[in-house]
Write a structure and sequence with these properties.
Blueprint lengths: L20 E8 L3 H12 L2 E6 L8 E8 L2 E8 L5 H9 L2 E8 L3 H10 L4 E10 L2 E9 L5 E6 L12 E2 L12 E10 L5 H12 L2 E6 L10 E8 L6 E8 L6 H9 L3 E9 L2 H10 L15 H5 L6 H7 L2 E5 L2 E7 L10 E8 L9 H15 L4
Parallel strand pairs: 1-4, 5-8, 10-13, 14-17
Antiparallel strand pairs: 1-5, 2-3, 2-9, 3-4, 6-7, 7-8, 10-14, 11-12, 12-13, 15-16, 16-17
InterPro entries: 4OHPhenylPyrv_dOase, 4OHPhenylPyrv_dOase_C, 4OHPhenylPyrv_dOase_N, Glyas_Bleomycin-R_OHBP_Dase, Glyas_Fos-R_dOase_dom, VOC_core
Family: Belongs to the 4HPPD family.
GO molecular function: 4-hydroxyphenylpyruvate dioxygenase activity
Amino acid sequence: METSTLPKNTNTSEDFMPINGTDYVELYVGNSKQAAHYYKSAFGFQSYAQAGLETGLKDRESYVVVQDKIRLVLTSPLKSGTEIGKHIDKHGDGVKVVALWVDDATIAYNNAMERGAKSYMEPQVEEDKDGQVVRAGIYTYGETVHIFVERKDYNGTFLPGFKKWETPDYNPEPTGLKFVDHMVGNVGWNKMNHWVKFYEDVLGFKNILSFDDKDISTEYTALMSKVMSNGNGRIKFPINEPAEGQKKSQVEEYLDFYEDEGVQHIAVATDNIIQTVRDLRSRGVEFLRVPATYYDAVTDRVGKIDEDIAPLKELGILVDRDDEGYLLQIFTKPVEPRPTMFFEIIQRKGAQSFGKGNFKALFEAIEREQELRGTLH
């Protein structure tokens, strides 16, 4: 795997890489049409845009689904031997692009390149009757890329080359998902600090939280994590690496089956996690469960919360508190055949942290799933 050569003394005291938010997340998948149906049916996304043979593409087809500020692009190859197909063959379905919305994609790209990034795509202007978009991209861990998207001069549906995709006969109701809260990357042994430095030097992020193997461990497994955030806090990328344990950790399992570093999970925010999780469960989304005894001490640990404990216990929703408030969170099982990518549903009631108090119970739940898969040892 190629890694970037990082400059040694880059000044990151100012936000030289202003980012407005997550523009879209693109997954390479084996069957984009069926994946779009899944995310609509199970997660409540809506039909939005489409590109493929009908729009002049010969090698791939993409469906874009949307829910509030979340845009997922689901892309599949239309023939053998493509780079997309090779990506799917190696990794299975997974995240290829984490697109970042910026005011000026060329400046963002040039700044990143000057600071040691590896180019994925030089700035290019894409135009149609609705205006123009400028996009440029760099590599990050594994084969994952960041694409800078500048769309201030565009009034179209999604991007030039896409057409509006409407399905008047089938549009399941949204489930209350609002925006991408954070995205977690799994990297190889002793690579966490390398990628922390990459985000600091190349993109101007800051390390806002760190967890070592004492914070994130069970009797059998452990990992370490550092949370990187951009200047305005709208983009947060926790980065995990394995740590020594008696058995194989979830990060090691991911690396084995994804066969590289990559995005482990996408955390999406809701304003009503109880209703959202009820809706998702009723549509077949499967979640990790912690033992019922977890809830015996919740109020002692986190203090008074607005929600009743009973529905949280019924649904398996976890609670944690920091100095700013508390949060509620729950994690799906992997949404692909391989035990790789999954989703987190999160509701923040002031808390800015990531559920440190839930780590032990959560990772024990993951270990139970690993045991069933035969991948814990």
